């Protein structure tokens, strides 16, 4: 019985299993490691926002990223192209078969807050979450705990208010 | 922090960055994190699988941060020393993290996942990408002013 109960709990916590998540996470980590081993650089995804803005804005805040803006553009292009290749080969219905049902206002307003928060907070899910946690950085552990807990509270509140999706 | 822009870059520098990005993007697409619905399901406790994306990624980088510096003295393409990703801690980490958390919880989107989401053909995600650029620009304008107004200020990060 206890085995069945454990299995039941597992199915409830992980209705889609864990394989696709774990394999995907390992690949994300490997992408970071390829760059790290060759160059010593810990690449995160959110710096691209400011480094790319330095092409079109003279604001002093963005100038510190002028030196890295070209390779950050290449890194982001790689992310887009890698995901596109994956969808072409493996996605049900092929490339473009999925578009999100999450409402545009949630994406836009949420996106603005993500843009502010990741840059003020010195990192995002990849910079703090994958590189920083992998570095056992206390700053990143605090950052991850903060954005994870606040995100859980926000998502639960929005769902409780009846906004779907 | 290295930015990889020594006067003469190794010819393989940009190709390696591209390969790293490609693998990163395949991983985000396979993990389903490129779908905001999956992220929101995780944050609403309906599917805890997403824990394994960040944990799996951090486990792999953790091994690399521990092992690579013992095997190689310097990074072959840049000549830079291997360092862990460490940032100074201050109030901004918590304030920014909380703002990011509200945005992530509202939209189900973080920067890397948004780029990958565009890659899989989810054009609706351009709303979020436009928002992220707007937000990054707004904080840049604001912080450029406050930093410029304090000539003696030490670098915040």
List the defining traits of the structure above:
heterodimer, A: 165 residues, mainly alpha, 8 helices, 70% helix, B: 157 residues, 6 helices, 61% helix, disordered C terminus
Strand content of chain A: under 5%
Q: Structural class of the helix and strand makeup of chain B?
A: mainly alpha
Report the span from N to C terminus of chain B.
11 Å
The major β-sheet of chain B equals: none
Q: How many helical elements of chain A?
A: 8
H/I helix tally of chain B = 6
Structural description of this entry:
The complex is a heterodimer of chains A (165) and B (157). By secondary structure, chain A is mostly helical. Chain A has a domain at 100-165. Helices cover 70% and strands 0% of the residues of chain A. Chain A contains eight helices and no strands. The radius of gyration of chain A is 19 Å and the shape is globular. Chain B is mainly α and 157 residues long. Chain B starts with 12 loop residues before the first helix and ends in a 9-residue tail after the last helix.
Short summary of the structure?
The complex is a heterodimer of chains A (165) and B (157). Chain A has helices spanning 2-13, 19-39, 47-53, 60-63, 69-90, 104-120, 125-134, 138-160.
Give the topology:
The complex is a heterodimer of chains A (165) and B (157).
Chain A (H helix, E strand, L loop, with lengths): L1 H12 L5 H21 L7 H7 L6 H4 L5 H22 L13 H17 L4 H10 L3 H23 L5
Chain B lengths: L12 H18 L5 H8 L7 H21 L19 H17 L3 H9 L6 H23 L9
Helix pairs in contact in B: 1-5, 5-6
